[in-house]
Amino acid sequence: MNVPADLKYTKDHEWVKVDGDTAIIGVTDFAQSELGDIVYVEVETEGETLDQEEVFGSIEAVKTVSDLFMPVGGEVTAFNEELESNPEVVNSDPYGEGWMIKVKLSDASEVDGLLSADEYKDLIG
Fold first, then answer.
1. In angstroms, rounded to a whole number, what is the distance separating the alpha carbons of residues 3 and 84?
2. CATH topology for 8-124?
3. How do residues 19-73 score in pLDDT, each as one tens digit?
């Protein structure tokens, strides 16, 4: 499993990359491999301010639908529109082209409470 060391992670298998006061969020390589072939990503929260742990969207694979949870609180400022026509990019490049949303952080200290790459590797075994 690919677990980049420069990202933070959640127990719900989202990753976070912080760039200034913006967090870029997606699902981990582990999550996409567990889900299987992703056929649809739905995010209808663009422009909304959500708290940490709130649902920001859902991801649909051939066999299941899973909610996507905010790893940090803030305003959803962008959705990766590429995923509307190409959801399978989450399978092929979960940490790059498969990013899902960008969030303007409400409280940057929430990032400190997320899992490091090593802690996430321990979680997924």
1. 25
2. OB fold (Dihydrolipoamide Acetyltransferase, E2P) (2.40.50)
3. 999 999 999 999 999 999 999 999 999 999 999 999 999 999 998 999 999 999 9
